[in-house]
Amino acid sequence: MRAVVYTETGPSSVLTLVERDTPVPGPGELRVRLMRAGVNPTDHKQRAGGTYAALPYPEITPGQDGAGEVDAVGDGVEGYAAGDRVWVMLAQHGRPFGTAAEYVVVPVDRVFRLPEGASYDLGASLGVPAITAHRALTSGESVSRLAPGALTGQTVLVHGGAGAVGNAAVQLASWAGATVVATVSSDEKAALAVAAGAAQTVNYTVGDPVAEVRALAPDGVDLVVDVAPAQNNDLDREVTRVRGTIAIYANNGGDELTMPLRATFSKNLRYQFILLYTLGEDLLRAAAEDVSAAVAAGALRVGEDAGVPLHHFPIERAADAHQAVEDGAVGKVLLDLA
């Protein structure tokens, strides 16, 4: 099979396309013949050395997310057969080989059925963005699962509503009944956030975003989904209601977060920090089930009309795909594997 690998950390040029033996699933594992693989910021950050002090394996195939067909079933696996359409999450977590390859072997608990009618493009776009968004939206004081009506009556502020996680959060929150306000940096990104389901957008580069959000949510927002807390925390504190939640999943814009304690604890604010790799199997499973339900309902989509422009790269151009994500491509970058 063809696989993309790297043997040292560094820029996207360290990625190499090689031929490798097709892996064999062990007990409790499935082999998936991949059609698409999603490329996420976590992939290029790990490749660049931002995660590893030293490579944990002599050779790494990057990629956490993908979609394709079950090709082989390991001992002890029930409920799956060759030909089943599936999506995969966290394929490379704790393992040397991820989804930037024609085949991947993964534990059965990281594989989920792709609902009928859902494309492989959509399946490969779930994983990291959608599971992260789900955890953010269920980190408040009253909602642990997402379904239609679960967030009815709540207002959710999503920072970076045109980003991958931001878009998933907008779509999932809208499906669950919330009123969604999304921050964006341009008219073009505002159009994408609205296509995803945002009721209102706020351009944080102009005017007074605190006043604009407050005008849209006079009593304060119930929950904030934040990608850049070092820059946004003052705004978040001002616009979040008493006993509201601020969910943080990235460190865009700075690695240090400081806050005035009295102004923060006087509102009884809840801060939820999110990293999928330490989330726990129970929360991952619950998120995947809800995400699949949203896909089956047509509530999670990709493409320009869903606010998620797709950028396809053949496996031979995996380095270009990584670079596109690193350079801030708007939408979803996918590797075409079949």
UniProtKB/TrEMBL annotation:
The Enoyl reductase (ER) domain is annotated at 10-335
Top-rank taxon: Bacteria
**Keywords, alphabetical:** NADP
Q: Which Pfam families match?
A: ADH_N, ADH_zinc_N
Q: What is this protein called?
A: NADPH:quinone reductase
Q: Which organism is it from?
A: Nocardioides eburneus
